[in-house]
Specification:
2 copies of one chain form a homodimer. Chain A is an alpha+beta fold. Chain A has one domain: Pnp Oxidase, Chain A, CATH 2.30.110. Helices cover 21% and strands 38% of the residues of chain A. In chain A, strand 4 and strand 5 (59-65) form a beta hairpin. The first copy, chain A, starts with 18 loop residues before the first strand and ends with a helix. Chains A and B meet through strand 2, strand 3, strand 6, strand 7 and helix 3 of A and strand 2, strand 3, strand 6, strand 7 and helix 3 of B. Strand 9 of chain A pairs antiparallel with strand 9 (184-192) of chain B.
Chain lengths: 218, 218
């Protein structure tokens, strides 16, 4: 199992038993996410912005307008930190102190490079569309040359990474287990609701099978 | 309506019409979120970590182990950027280029200070618990002195902030509206599933009303 190097930068400091450094765990967390939060530094000032992400091998793909602050920072070779987080549930312990959430998070470090070669750029854009809605790329109109130029795509090579995962029931102090306080987990999940057709949609156009499948998979 | 100052740091650069700088919009986005992603800089290196957040007036409350990297950074007076993001739906346009997501995000800038005074610290911790599960604080065992000392609570004064919001249907190129491609929005939302009682829970203890209410409110 491929492991990321463990350094002071990516070491999980708090509750180390929840930490993981293998690419399988980390890539599954990324694979389940639509967005990541990207951190970067300009003039000593930290910025964090949410953005769509995709993974291609050991790289994270980001895209945006060529003129955006993040894309200009990437082009200048700046360091990035990318966090991906899922909340899976609320953990209700008998004591306030042991309340927690069940979560899966990954924090990545690296730098990016623009993908400029036409075919590679199209393939990266296909990844973004397909991860939102598998099957969509071949159905929608493909990007034209103007649209391709307006979008910058960056590939961030993951130098260091860690995952942190909490699962399962609350951990209470032994003395607290006898308290008459309800304890357990309240699971959370993200679901799709019924699709809303565009007002200008031809009423004869039915929801495509790939979209129906996504909704039903929930 | 209270407005945050508009500077180059917090100005929404891409699609400015989606930007907002009033505290009402920004605080509603924060109020709907359990976690934020906090960015900070140590030795020129950006770090982004997910953490529970709460709001108290014009301050964001963060908590963690006193020895954690983030808490030590806050204590040293370091700059923070905090992003809060909700994904509300997938936006399927007729062209790949106009695919998007509906989202509400807020990005904040500021610095934090520890809350050390006992009563203020307890009140801050109450906010964290109550925002996870309203009604929980009075039901669970309150923090003892050891637990209070182990937890650091920081209040981050929001110096600058912006919101960015996308809602509604796709915007397609006029020529594309006649394409036979399904277009519209696939709404997403986070839901609670059935509560899982702790294995060691007294079977006579029923789910409390405040928790049932939270589950039903979905």
């Amino acid at each position: 199992m491929a492991q990321f190097e463990l350094t002071e930068k990516n070491r999980v400091q708090r509750v180390p038993k929840r930490g993981a450094y293998d690419s399988k765990t980390i890539y599954e967390i990324i694979g389940d996410a639509l967005i990541g939060h990207v951190g970067f530094v300009i003039d000593d000032q930290p910025f964090v912005i949410p953005t769509l992400i995709a993974r291609q091998g050991d790289q994270i793909l980001l895209h945006g307008a060529t003129s955006s602050r993040l894309m200009r920072h990437i082009q200048s070779g700046g360091d990035l930190s990318i966090a991906v987080t899922h909340i899976d549930g609320l953990v209700l312990a008998r004591s306030v102190f042991h309340h927690s959430i069940n979560y899966r998070s990954a924090v990545l470090f690296g730098r990016g490079e623009f993908i400029n070669e036409r075919r590679a750029k199209l393939e990266a854009l296909r990844q973004f569309t397909e991860r939102l809605v598998p099957g969509r790329w071949d159905d929608a109109r493909q990007p034209n040359e103007v649209e391709l130029k307006a979008t910058a795509v960056a590939a961030v090579t993951i130098d260091l990474a860690s995952a942190k995962v909490r699962t399962g029931p609350p951990s209470d102090e032994e003395d607290d287990y006898s308290l008459p306080v309800w304890a357990g987990v309240l699971p959370m999940r993200q679901v799709y609701e019924d699709a809303i057709p565009d007002d200008r949609l031809d009423p004869d156009l039915e929801i495509p099978g790939y979209l129906q499948k996504l909704i039903e998979a929930g």
